């Protein structure tokens, strides 16, 4: 029987590198790859990487069942404000909603506070006479002629490239928005259109309007990008399915990504969290912190019971990176993680005002990249400091495909940062590393503290090109006792695309006290969302019998200004479920706040359905099995020594181990370096290492 179309490829486009993992279960084949990202056109690196993987494995494009893709393109577009020219149609009297916002200041005492700029300037926000109240009753019919005049003005006079429509209370009744959309479609069939009742059908007009505008802002760019990628892959001979990773960690079809690109805003980082969740499930670890450090950013995520935390709102393009309220609020499902500007390409400099060294968040990216890449970089980065400190082999970067220029780095650090701080070159290089490690440790502590968690009780799973290089020092700073580094750690985010399940989250708002809920209406909403979710998952390749739906509700005490997601006991609810729903609310509330107030009434605001199908398992050990002979005796996997500078230990002579030659059961002690093609794992003098049955490095710290 001929084997065909069984191979799958995961592609993660990062700010510095584009990572690839190919898996073919029928042929027992796993292959990995890494290329510098092509910022001007990310699809160039994708096509080149796919071609190379096919050549290395002897496969043809016709053997590919699917390609799963994630990108930072949406995030970068909003941060850099390079999106489309957007117009907005809204209810008469509400054109300034996205500027008024919540009428709060993210910094109460800053007299010169900078508000996050809106994506749609006031002259491109037009009002239309119409009004539906909170109960869904029509108070003022839609003025259809006003819609025609407004959209004609926006297109013909303002030259908009995309349109958002957000009417008051459309989450409760979408008739006016839907009709306005039909009018726009009849006039301008090719104009990208975002209806708030489809993009974010939730209560709160500011957040809903902001999300609809952001979706319209990135829609033309993402459509062009995905259309070009599909065309280029087809020219390669690819006839399989192209899927994308959603910010919530699920896999969706390309059509969904073209219609709702804002749901991809955290698609790349989400893949890393899904990879960590897969590894946690594989190894039986219940309490894990995922640590994904690439060339541009570091991402930390809490993973418990083999699943990452999720949330249903997100702030993009913050004016102040860590200041809540300083960005654009979006109502999208995302993996709950902290992301900071600390990567291998993060630039180090001496601040002229304070005379202190700063590292990040500005990154050298792929162009020009760190000094050691020899591509025109002139400012020292974290990767440059790792090279000077002996952690990277200049002759084995990317498996020897890319040589690193040590002399150029040493010269610039010595004449720049070291001279500016009046310290020796090695001290300056160690300072760069210590600052970035402390920055990541502080962010991780804050993230876990907000959830009431103690990092000492967790295992660190490290991956990404720079993750294993910095994981040992990060674990020490967090006082963790164990860390795990998977095989193929440098491309583990791409692995996340292949193990992530087809999944989607849907929401509808219906506000009511629990004792007054219209259960027939709620059950209708749940059934509608299940039907929509199943259709999306079937398009994403899920089998009909594998799809499972779970219900939840955003609930709060009456009078509170925030709500919490609470799991519901059934997909078909009635007043008989009230005791169970109340108890679920109190359990969730107690876990988050440490106390409950049972005497206060409870209300539900939004009802949610999560549809999910099983993901796939992948054994990365196949990489080692096909790459080289492996040994349980670690000494036989050694391929040399190198001096490495460790803080508190000084320069130490480290054995360098071939990652692919370490078989399950191998063990050794630090100081040591474990090298594979896409990354290097640094192990300190006081650590002990063993290789588990999945070929993960399990590192125990004192």
From TrEMBL:
InterPro entries in the cross-refs: ACX-like_C, ATPase_NBD, Hydant_A_N, Hydantoinase_A, Oxoprolinase-like
Domain Hydantoinase A/oxoprolinase: 208-502
GO-annotated cellular components: cytosol
Domain (Hydantoinase/oxoprolinase N-terminal): residue spans on this chain: 8-186
Domain Acetophenone carboxylase-like C-terminal: 537-696
Record-level Gene Ontology MF annotations: 5-oxoprolinase (ATP-hydrolyzing) activity
Signal sequence segment: none
Protein name: N-methylhydantoinase A
Protein source organism: Humitalea rosea
């Amino acid at each position: 029987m001929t084997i065909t179309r069984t191979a799958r490829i995961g592609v993660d486009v990062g700010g510095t590198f584009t990572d690839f993992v190919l898996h073919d279960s029928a042929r027992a084949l796993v292959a990995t790859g890494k290329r510098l990202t092509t910022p001007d056109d990310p699809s160039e690196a994708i096509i080149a990487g796919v071609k190379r993987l096919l050549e290395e494995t002897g496969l043809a494009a016709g053997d590919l069942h699917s390609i799963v893709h994630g990108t930072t393109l949406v995030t970068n577009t909003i941060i850099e404000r390079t999106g489309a020219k957007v117009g907005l149609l809204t209810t008469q009297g509400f054109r300034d909603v996205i500027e008024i916002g919540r009428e709060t200041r993210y910094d109460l005492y800053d007299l010169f506070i900078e508000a996050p700029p809106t994506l749609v300037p006031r002259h491109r926000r037009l009002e239309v006479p119409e009004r539906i109240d909170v109960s869904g009753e029509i108070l003022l019919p839609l003025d259809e002629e006003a819609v025609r005049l407004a959209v004609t003005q926006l297109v013909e006079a303002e030259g908009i490239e995309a349109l958002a429509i957000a009417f008051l209370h459309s989450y409760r009744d979408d008739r006016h928005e839907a009709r306005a959309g039909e009018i726009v479609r009849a006039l301008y069939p090719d104009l990208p259109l975002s209806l708030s009742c489809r993009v974010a059908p939730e209560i709160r007009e500011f957040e809903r309007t902001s999300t609809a505008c952001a979706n319209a802002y990135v829609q033309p760019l993402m459509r062009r990008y995905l259309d070009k990628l599909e065309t280029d892959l087809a020219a390669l001979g690819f006839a399989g399915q192209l899927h994308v990773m959603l910010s919530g960690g699920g896999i969706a079809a390309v059509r969904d990504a073209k219609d709702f690109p804002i749901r991809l805003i955290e698609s790349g980082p989400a893949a890393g969290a899904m990879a960590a969740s897969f590894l946690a499930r594989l190894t039986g670890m219940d309490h894990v912190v995922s640590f994904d450090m690439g060339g541009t950013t570091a991402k930390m995520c809490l993973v418990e019971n083999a699943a990452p935390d999720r949330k249903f709102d997100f702030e993009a393009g913050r004016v102040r990176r860590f200041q809540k309220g300083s960005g654009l609020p979006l109502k999208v499902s995302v993996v709950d993680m902290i992301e900071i500007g600390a990567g291998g390409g993060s630039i180090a400099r001496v601040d002229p005002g304070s005379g202190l060294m700063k590292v990040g968040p500005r990154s050298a990216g792929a162009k020009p990249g760190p000094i050691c890449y020899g591509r025109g970089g002139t400012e020292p980065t974290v990767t440059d400091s790792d090279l000077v400190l002996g952690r990277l082999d200049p002759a084995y970067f990317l498996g020897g495909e890319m040589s690193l220029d040590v002399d150029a780095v040493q010269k610039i650090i010595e004449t720049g940062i070291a001279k500016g701080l009046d310290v020796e070159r090695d001290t300056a290089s160690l300072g760069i590393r210590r600052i970035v490690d402390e920055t990541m440790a502080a962010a991780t502590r804050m993230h876990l503290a907000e959830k009431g968690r103690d990092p000492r009780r967790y295992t660190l799973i490290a991956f990404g090109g720079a993750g294993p290089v910095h994981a040992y020092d990060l674990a020490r700073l967090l006082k963790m006792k164990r860390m795990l580094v998977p095989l193929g750690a440098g491309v583990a985010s791409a692995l996340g695309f292949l193990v992530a399940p087809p999944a989607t989250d849907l929401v509808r708002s219906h506000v009511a006290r629990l004792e007054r809920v219209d259960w027939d209406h709620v059950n209708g909403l749940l059934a509608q969302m299940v039907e929509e979710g199943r259709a999306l998952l079937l398009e994403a390749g899920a089998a009909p019998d594998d799809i499972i739906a779970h219900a939840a509700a955003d609930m709060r005490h009456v009078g509170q200004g925030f709500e919490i997601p609470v799991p519901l006991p059934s997909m078909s609810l009635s007043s008989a479920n009230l005791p169970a729903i109340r108890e679920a609310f109190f359990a969730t509330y107690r876990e988050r706040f440490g106390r409950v107030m049972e005497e206060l009434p409870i209300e539900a605001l939004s009802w949610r359905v999560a549809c999910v199908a099983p993901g796939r398992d992948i054994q990365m050990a196949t990489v080692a099995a096909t790459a080289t002979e492996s040994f349980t005796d670690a000494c036989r996997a050694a391929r040399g020594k190198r001096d490495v500078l460790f803080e508190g230990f000084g320069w130490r002579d480290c054995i360098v181990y071939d990652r692919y030659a370490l078989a399950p059961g191998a063990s050794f002690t630090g100081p040591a370096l474990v090298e594979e093609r896409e990354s290097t794992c640094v192990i300190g003098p006081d650590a002990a290492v063993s290789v588990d049955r999945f070929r993960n490095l399990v590192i125990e710290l004192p």
